[in-house]
Design goal:
The protein contains six helices and ten strands. Strand 1 and strand 2 form a beta hairpin. The radius of gyration is 17 Å and the shape is globular. The protein is of the alpha/beta class.
Length: 233
């Protein structure tokens, strides 16, 4: 079942007298419980697309339907509510608060989420059961990324948006993070969207959307995605 529909979505940025079309007439669907990879080089429009799906930016034209509601018409306060209730974010850099413990960093989402999940349970899911009381500076990069995933999941979002989530990690740790994201799609029925320029990640996806020069080049549904361990990293 489609949870997201992009309908002829365009985004134009104005810089003085100049106009820059970051995204042009993008149309696609994302299904519930699907792991989707948005693939393309730097400057292709991937982040613009992700920002609009995450309610961080509005399109210039077109519609973005999420569970039947057009979020492209929402005002700033309504977009904030949408981000709090529907979307979790995982970035390349972890954005953890250094003065808070691992558990406190994840528990923070209770302040904004309507139906948060247990911070303790989510940290167990990402394999950090023995790290609750540590501070971010005491963790490796991979462990910090797993804390950021636990924090995003604790919001109990319908959609988890990941911007180059393995970009700052070595290949072994990156594989661990990808296995975790795949598990969240399969076992928790979350829609996982990974924006990346790493074409290897596309091999594990249910759907691959290729973007170039602000346009959707292709949409490929993969009926038999590889397991993470089957991919050559």
């Amino acid at each position: 079942m489609a949870i997201v529909e992009f309908m002829d979505v365009s985004k134009i940025y104005k810089v003085g007298e100049m106009e820059f079309k970051a995204l042009s007439d993008a149309s696609f669907e994302l299904n519930e419980g699907e792991l989707v990879v948005i693939l393309g080089p730097s400057g292709a429009g991937k982040s613009t697309l992700l920002n609009m799906l995450g309610g961080l930016d509005n399109p210039t034209s077109g519609k973005i339907m999420v569970e039947g509601k057009d979020i492209s018409k929402l005002k700033n306060n309504e977009l904030a509510e949408y981000r709090a209730s529907h979307v979790g974010f995982v970035f390349q850099f972890y954005n953890l608060i250094p003065t808070l413990t691992v558990h406190e960093n994840v528990t923070l989402v209770k302040e904004i989420a309507e139906n948060p999940l247990s911070a303790t349970k989510m940290l167990e899911e990402v394999g950090l059961k023995d790290h609750y009381k540590k501070f971010p500076s005491e963790l490796s990069g991979g462990e910090q990324q797993r804390v950021s995933i636990a924090r995003a999941l604790a919001k109990n979002p319908k959609i988890l948006l990941c911007d180059e989530p393995t970009g700052a990690l070595d290949s072994e740790t990156g594989v661990m993070v990808l296995k975790l994201l795949l598990k969240m799609a399969r076992e928790y029925n979350k829609t996982i969207v990974i924006v990346t320029h790493n074409s290897n990640i596309a091999e594990i996806a249910d759907k691959v959307i290729r973007v170039r020069s602000g346009k959707i080049q292709s949409i490929e549904n993969n009926s038999n995605p590889k397991n993470v361990d089957e991919v050559e990293w």
